[in-house]
Amino acid sequence: MHLAKTINKLKGRVTMMFITHQIPRGLQVNEVFNFGAGQQGAVRMEVVEDGR
């Protein structure tokens, strides 16, 4: 969770790319690209704000 908090503080000031199997919990992301096996090319998903 500490990593996510640190990165969230940088939001809007830097561009950061994670290559990972799972998005760190608590990380506020703008976009997700999925390069999974069995898919036709890359899939782009936009993350929407959670109303909590």
Describe the structure.
- The chain is α+β, with helices and mostly antiparallel strands and 52 residues long.
- It has one domain (2-46).
- Helix content is 15%, strand content 15%.
- It has a two-stranded antiparallel ribbon.
- A hairpin with an 8-residue loop joins strand 1 and strand 2 (43-46).
- The longest helix is centred in the first third of the chain and has 8 residues, at 2-9.
Describe the SSE topology:
Elements: H1 2-9, E1 31-34, E2 43-46
Antiparallel strand pairs: 1-2
Task: Write a brief caption for the model.
With 52 residues, this protein is of the alpha+beta class.
Radius of gyration: 12 Å
Question: Segments where pLDDT lies below 50 for 5+ residues?
Answer: none
Structural class: alpha+beta
Cross-sheet strand order for the largest sheet = 1-2
Strand count? 2
Secondary-structure element series: HEE
Descriptive key words:
two-stranded antiparallel ribbon, 52 residues, 15% helix, alpha+beta
